[in-house]
Structure formats: C-alpha cells, structure tokens
Amino acid sequence: MWKFFARRTAMSLFALVGVVVLVFFMIHAIPGDPVDNLLGEQVQAADKEAFRRRLHLDEGLGAQFARYMENIGDGTLGRSYMDPSVTVSDRIGEVLPYTLQLAVCAMLFALLVAIPLGVIAALRHRTWVDTTAMMVAVTGVSLPAVWIGPLLIYLFTVKVPLLPPPGALAQDWRSLILPSITLGLALSAMLARMTRGQLVRVLSEDYIRTARAKGLSTFRVVVVHGLRNALIPVATVAGMQFGALLSGAVIVEKIYARPGLGTLLLRAITQRDYPVVQGTVLVVAALVVIVTQLTDALYAMIDPRLRGGGRT
Question: What is the CATH number of domain 95-307?
Fold first, then answer.
C-alpha cells in the first residue's frame, strides 16, 4: 500500500511541476503587453520602459522564470502588477475560503442527491423507478452551468424571491444554495448513474446472496455489505472530480458575482496580471494533488483489502 501511495505522490508532484512550467511559458507566449493594460497606450515610451523595468518584464524568460521559482519558494508567489504592495499569496488567501466553501457545498449536494437516487434505482432495477431516476440523471448531466445558473436565478430570485440575488453578501449562507446546486448538479447526475451501476453489480455477487440466505435484513444487506463495496469507485470519482468543481467554480462565481479563485483568475487574465494568474493556477493544481492523495487514503478506509496490501 505504501508503495502505491509513494508512486501516486511522485506522479502527482511531477504533474504539479509540469503545470508550473507550462503555465509560466504559455502565459508569456500570449500576445499582448501587461504594461499597455496598466498604463494605457497614450503613455510615453520612456515611462513604459521604466515601468517595465520595475516589474522585471525587461528581463529574459530565464531570469523571469528563476524569479518566479524564487517567489514560489518564499511563499509569496510574487506581487500583483495592479497592487505591488500586496503579495499574490495574500490575495489568494483572501478569496480561497469562498471557493473551497462553494466546492465543498457543491460536493455535499451532489452526494446527498446521487447516493439515494442511485440506491433507489438499483433496488428497483429495470422498473419505471429505475428508468425515471436515470432520466433525471441524464437530464442533470445535460444541463450546463451557464444555462442552469441564470434559470435558477430567474426562478428563485426574480419570479419567486426566496433566495438572495447574485452579488449578495457571501457571509449569508442562503447565497450558497443556488451556486452549490448549479455547480454540483452535473456531478450528482454522474455519481447517481455510477452508484446505480456499481450497486446493481455488487448485489448480484455470491456473498450478497449468502448474506440474504443468513436472514439478514434488507437494510443490512444493501447498506453494510453492498453499498460499502459499491461506493469504492464512486468515492474515487467524487474525489477526482473535486478538482473539476474548483475549475467549474470559475463560471459559477462569475454567474453569481461571488468572490473566489475563479473571479480572481478571470480578472487577472483580463488585466494580464501574470503573477496572479500563475499563482492562482498553481494553488488550484496543488489542491487537486492534495485531494488526489486524500482520495487514495480513502481507498484504504473503505476497502480493508488495501490496508492489507492487496493492491500494489
């Protein structure tokens, strides 16, 4: 088991280093000059050149990359072009809790919807209940956030004003309801279909028939013996999809005018604020790596065979 974790950790760290290098060189390859964005095109060339030197943009790519790695090493991630008095890590630290809060709530919504829906569909396999549940799941996968978000806003803040409108204070817990549904809907549909498929397969295994023959209750057979094994791949996908929730938050935060990494990243891209873009992407990639490692640890908690070294 430890060899498995060590191998996955090494692969994840290698991928993280690749993201760091790729983002740096890709963002510098994009046409455009951040100095023009900051000062405008009417400023004299001498002033632009002085400002470029202050931002170290007059240096070669090698020197800029070395400075970028130094900023990663000291934890500041550099300083924003828009406000050099603030480090990128401080700016990310201000908005990161909002994105994590949204992603966690979206994941909870997805699991609370997907697991019961999948279990019901599996227990009523090949009946109208199963068909209806899977139709609902397919519909959820088919609805993009850019469509379902404005629709929910129209229904629940305009037609029936039950929830706060976009731009409401992020401290109001009700402002999380619609963004969480918008972000977690597609994932809930995917997990529901997977839960249903895995549970149908597990319930046909010999040990399930043995458990039923011993006179165990349906609840114990399904939940203790069946669902626990069926949830192993579901937990895997849920963990891996947490990174997708973080990236999907870019769109959802824009729709609902919420603070977060997505809003910060979009603003930085528009302003060509290289340090903020690089730092934000690095943090998101690091979060994905951390969640991947936690998902691997979850394997061992769910499946005792992994604790015994059954998987290498």
Answer: 1.10.3720.10
